[in-house]
Each structure stands twice: as structure tokens, then as C-alpha cells.
């Protein structure tokens, strides 16, 4: 019986929609670019399409106990999709900080290097902003968690500038160098630029990069839906790039799993059972709300078409063919004694599902009355923070590679960056830093007090404090510090020591900005003012 149920679930997953999901790209185009086992690649594409269907529609489950006499509930709870969205938001809802700095082993940085780094930082920031990089990165994380991997492709074009595209795993094929998997030797991606039911009207754009003898070659072609070549957009030619302008982001997995792993696979079984039990509970409630009615020893014709409206009157008659009839009317209503046990089972399944990707199973109800400070939230979300740190071990170097491609490509193709900057990108020794940001509120007041204590103890500069907490640039900080120094000098200059006013005439002070008259000392002026005050006893004032 269990085997039969699993077969039913598999038949629901292997729908026509799944099996034809990647038929938008003809098999012939895929097979032509695969070196090795084409069947294994196509089988994996089929599996990835199933994973996307679970994300979009929910995990399949088999209803039971219907006996074909009623339509059972069929509500997918999509727990896997919800958890993946939460994980992606926690990872990149606060975008990472990307900075380009001088190499740390160069010693003092020259003014020319500082100017060159400023140009590079401004260029990278502008390119990322124009490409909506923050939004693309968040979506790319979801695709990576679902489809095992994702590709970030940089394109340099004088007409469109520098463009960044994230391509899901169902639309690209790649191979790496033997013995060095970090070097990509071949990358082919397929983009549907015009979709249509009619194959002759459909248009598929193929972009192909090949790395040979440390030189990158490019070819671009346009096909229709049947795989027939329509146009060669770019002939096979050498580019100025030294590496293929792509970064491959591979999700988790072991050392032997070079293609990555999907988090849908971790969550689908828990979601399936959660949906199955929840739908069974819905069916039980429906039965309880509309209980089964029964009659005993009643005449058949009198029990037809009985009304169930409020206040309805049933005119029933006993069966006259019985010698001693015992007429009776009643309902069969489920007792729902299983509710507590079901709630425990559902909570357990949900909690285990959350634990698979280290997301805390908390709600507003569970947080009532608890401490919600920044430290408390960080403690609650600590397993997820550690998981995100683990994922950044892969995301950080690939993002660094992506930014490095933008910088190097801008130097090779300077005409492609004219829309972003008027300056020339000059070669300089640099290193790229990417700082991951958490979307948790910080205890700002406490953090400020700690930084202020460091400023007072001379282990943190005022400039660093202002840049951190007030978001000032270097020039703004310099202006602010100059203003503070000027105000302090003015206060120090106008302040004077305590003076014995009885001998004030013997104390000489230099005039300050004309505050006192020419030849008159500050002490004489102050003493004269005091002598002119009419001081009366307190009793007289009263």
C-alpha cells in the first residue's frame, strides 16, 4: 500500500508540464554543446524542473480515505517556497557592501592610486545600480537554492554598456579545466528572447564562450523553436578578455557534488506530509460541519429530499410494513478527539522542516512577552546567521570575481563605460572587499557608547566614528573636524581666569576683537560694571 502511494505521488510529479518545461530549448541545441553523457545532463534538467514545480505549486501528496464519494481537499501549503524565500531575504535583503581598496602590502598609497581607486569605486557602484544588482542578487539566491546553481554573466557592449545577467541552471551548460575546477573553459547559455507556441516564430539566443590557449572566443547565434539557425549574430572570434566573463554560484553540496544541491530536496518530504495531514483535517472538519444523518424504521418516501435549512420541518412517517417499528432520527458527527495529537504532529513536522535550513520557527504569539533587543534577536537567529556565514564562503569569492570582471573588462573595452563615467580607468593594484550585512536591528545606543569609549581611550579616531555613525564622506568629516576645532579655539580665547576684582586695575588683558574699548583692560571694564550694581539687603526687597 505504501508503495502504491509513493507511485501516485511520483506520477503527480512527472506531469506533462514538468517533462516539457525545458523543451522551450530544443534537445538538439543542448546535445550539440554537451561533451560526455547527454542523458545524464538531460535527466538532471528534468529533476531541476521538478524542483521548480514544487517551489511554485507545492509538493505533491496523495489524499486517502475518500472512497470516491466526495471531493477531498487539495491545498498545498508551499512550506519549502516560504522557507527558501525567508532564507534568501535574510542573506541578501540587506545588500553586501562592496569596496575596492589598495592592496594591503603596498605600504603608503600614492595620490595617483587613490584617484584611480576612487574612479573604480564610482564605476562599479554606478554599473551595479544601473543593473538593479540588489534586486537581481536576491532573486539569484532563490534560484540558486532551488536549482542547485546559477550563473552570473557580464556582457560588454558599446550600445548597452555593461550588463549583468543571472541565468538559472536550466538555461546554461559549462565545463571546467581538468585539475582546476575554478577555471571555466566553456560556457553556453540559452535565452528565450521571443516565446511563442508556434516554433517557427519562437526565437532562442545562444551565447557561447570558449577558453583556448589563455584566449577567450565568443560566438552568438539566433535559432527558432525547432533548433534551426536563423542568424549568426556574432561570428566565432577572439575577445580581449583573458577569462570567460562569468561566475558560477554552486549551492552547498559535498566535495563530490560539483553541480550543487537543492534545498527543495531537503524540504519536499516534510511539506508533503504537512499538506497531507492538514488536508485530512480539513476533510474531517467538513464532515463534522455537515454530519451524516440517519433514520430508522421510517417510510422510504417520507425521507426523500429532506430540507437542511434553518427551522425546517420534517414530516416523517414510520414504515407500516413493520410489526413493531421503533422510529428514530439521528446524526453521525465525528468527535474530533485527534485534534491535540494532530496539532503536535504538525508542529513537529514544521519545526523539523525549519531546522533543515536553520530558520527559527517563531511567530508573533511565541515572541509575546520576550525580550526583543538586538542581542536577543541575534541569539534567536544565530543558527541562521552561521548558515549565512557558511554560504558566504561561496558567494563572496564569486561576487569578488564578478566585480573583478567588471573592472578588467572596463579597461579592455573603455567605450562601454562612457555612460557611467567620464574618467579613464587606469591600472592600479587593488583588492575587492565584500562585507555581508544582516537584516537584524542593532542596539545602536549601546554600540555608540562602546565606540565613544574607544574614541576617548584613543583606540578609535573621531573620523572613523563620524563615518560609521553619521555616514559622512572623508571631505565632510574633515570639514566637521575643522569646524569643531575652530569653535573650541573661540571658546578657549574668550574664556578668562578668575580675577580679584579689588585689584582688577592691576591686571592687564589684551583686547579681543574689539570687545573692550581701546586702552581699556577687560578687568577694568568688568570691575566698573560690578561697582555700578545697586545691591540691597534681601529684607528690603521683600
Order of helices and strands: HHHHHEHHEEEEEEEEHEEHHHHEHHHHH
What kind of sheet is the major sheet? 5 strands, antiparallel
Describe the global form. Answer: flat
Strand arrangement across the biggest beta sheet: 4-5-6-7-8
Mean of pLDDT:
82
- Helix tally equals 17
For the record, give the distance between the C-alpha atoms at the N and C termini, rounded to a whole number: 105 Å
Structural class based on helices, strands and sheet pairing:
alpha+beta
Question: What is the beta-strand fraction?
Answer: 15-25%
User: Radius of gyration in whole Å, from Cα?
Assistant: 38 Å
Question: What is the helix content?
Answer: 40-55%
According to DSSP, the number of beta strands is: 12
Unreliable segments of 5+ consecutive residues: 1-6, 18-22, 497-501, 511-542
Explain this structure.
- This protein has helices at residues 2-13, 16-19, 27-33, 38-57, 79-92, 111-130, 133-147, 264-289, 339-356, 364-367, 374-380, 382-412, 444-456, 462-469, 474-494, 522-531, 538-541, and strands spanning 97-102, 149-157, 161-168, 172-177, 180-194, 203-212, 215-223, 229-238, 246-250, 292-296, 328-332, 430-435.
- It is α+β, with helices and mostly antiparallel strands and 542 residues long.
- It has a domain at 444-494.
- A 5-stranded antiparallel β-sheet has the order 4-5-6-7-8, with no helix packed on it. The protein has a 3-stranded antiparallel β-sheet with strand order 3-2-9. Strands 1-12 form a two-stranded antiparallel sheet.
Amino acid at each position: 500500500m505504501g508503495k502504491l502511494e509513493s507511485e501516485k505521488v511520483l506520477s503527480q510529479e512527472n506531469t506533462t508540464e514538468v517533462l516539457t518545461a525545458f523543451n522551450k530549448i530544443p534537445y538538439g541545441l543542448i546535445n550539440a554543446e554537451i561533451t560526455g553523457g547527454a542523458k545524464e545532463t538531460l535527466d538532471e534538467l528534468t529533476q531541476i524542473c521538478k524542483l521548480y514545480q514544487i517551489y511554485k505549486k507545492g509538493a505533491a501528496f496523495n489524499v486517502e480515505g475518500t472512497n470516491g464519494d466526495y471531493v477531498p481537499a487539495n491545498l498545498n501549503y508551499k512550506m519549502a517556497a516560504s522557507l527558501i524565500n525567508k532564507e534568501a531575504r535574510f542573506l541578501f535583503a540587506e545588500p553586501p557592501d562592496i569596496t575596492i581598496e589598495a592592496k594591503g602590502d603596498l605600504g603608503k598609497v600614492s595620490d595617483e592610486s587613490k584617484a584611480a581607486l576612487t574612479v573604480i569605486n564610482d564605476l562599479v557602484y554606478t554599473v551595479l545600480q544601473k543593473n538593479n544588482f540588489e534586486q537581481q542578487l536576491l532573486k539569484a539566491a532563490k534560484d540558486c537554492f532551488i536549482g542547485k546553481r546559477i550563473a552570473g554573466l557580464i556582457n560588454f557592449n558599446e550600445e548597452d554598456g555593461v550588463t549583468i545577467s543571472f541565468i538559472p541552471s536550466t538555461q546554461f551548460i559549462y565545463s571546467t579545466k581538468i585539475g582546476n575546477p575554478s577555471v571555466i573553459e566553456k560556457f553556453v547559455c540559452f535565452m528565450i528572447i521571443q516565446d511563442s507556441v508556434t516554433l517557427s516564430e519562437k526565437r532562442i539566443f545562444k551565447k557561447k564562450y570558449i577558453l583556448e590557449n589563455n584566449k577567450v572566443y565568443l560566438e552568438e547565434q539566433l535559432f527558432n523553436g525547432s533548433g534551426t539557425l536563423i542568424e549568426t549574430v556574432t561570428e566565432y572570434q577572439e575577445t580581449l578578455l583573458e577569462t570567460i566573463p562569468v561566475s558560477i554560484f554552486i549551492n552547498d553540496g559535498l566535495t563530490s557534488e560539483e553541480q550543487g544541491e537543492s534545498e527543495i530536496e531537503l524540504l519536499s518530504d516534510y511539506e508533503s506530509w504537512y499538506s497531507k495531514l492538514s488536508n485530512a483535517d480539513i476533510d474531517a472538519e467538513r464532515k463534522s460541519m455537515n454530519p451524516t444523518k440517519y433514520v430508522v424504521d421510517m417510510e422510504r418516501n417520507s425521507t426523500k429530499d429532506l430540507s437542511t435549512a434553518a427551522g425546517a420541518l420534517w414530516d416523517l412517517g414510520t414504515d407500516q410494513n413493520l410489526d413493531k417499528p421503533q422510529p428514530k432520527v439521528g446524526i453521525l458527527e465525528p468527535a474530533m478527539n485527534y485534534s491535540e495529537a494532530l496539532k503536535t504532529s504538525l508542529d513537529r513536522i514544521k519545526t523539523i522542516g525549519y531546522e533543515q535550513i536553520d530558520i527559527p520557527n517563531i511567530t508573533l504569539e511565541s515572541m509575546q512577552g520576550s525580550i526583543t533587543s538586538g542581542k536577543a534577536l541575534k541569539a534567536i537567529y544565530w543558527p541562521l546567521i552561521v548558515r549565512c556565514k557558511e554560504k558566504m564562503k561561496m558567494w563572496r569569492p564569486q561576487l569578488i570575481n564578478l566585480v573583478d570582471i567588471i573592472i578588467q573588462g572596463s579597461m579592455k573595452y573603455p567605450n562601454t563605460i562612457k555612460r557611467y563615467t567620464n574618467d579613464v580607468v587606469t591600472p592600479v593594484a587593488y583588492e575587492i572587499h565584500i562585507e555581508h550585512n544582516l537584516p537584524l536591528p542593532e542596539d545602536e545606543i549601546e554600540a555608540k557608547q562602546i565606540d565613544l569609549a574607544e574614541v576617548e581611550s584613543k583606540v578609535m579616531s573621531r573620523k572613523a566614528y563620524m563615518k560609521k555613525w553619521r555616514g559622512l564622506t572623508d571631505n565632510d568629516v574633515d570639514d566637521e573636524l575643522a569646524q569643531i576645532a575652530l569653535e573650541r579655539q573661540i571658546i578657549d580665547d574668550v574664556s578668562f581666569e578668575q580675577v580679584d576684582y579689588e585689584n582688577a586695575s592691576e591686571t592687564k588683558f589684551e583686547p579681543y576683537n574689539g570687545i573692550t574699548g581701546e586702552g581699556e583692560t577687560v578687568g577694568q571694564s568688568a570691575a566698573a560694571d560690578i561697582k555700578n550694581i545697586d545691591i540691597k539687603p534681601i529684607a528690603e526687597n521683600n
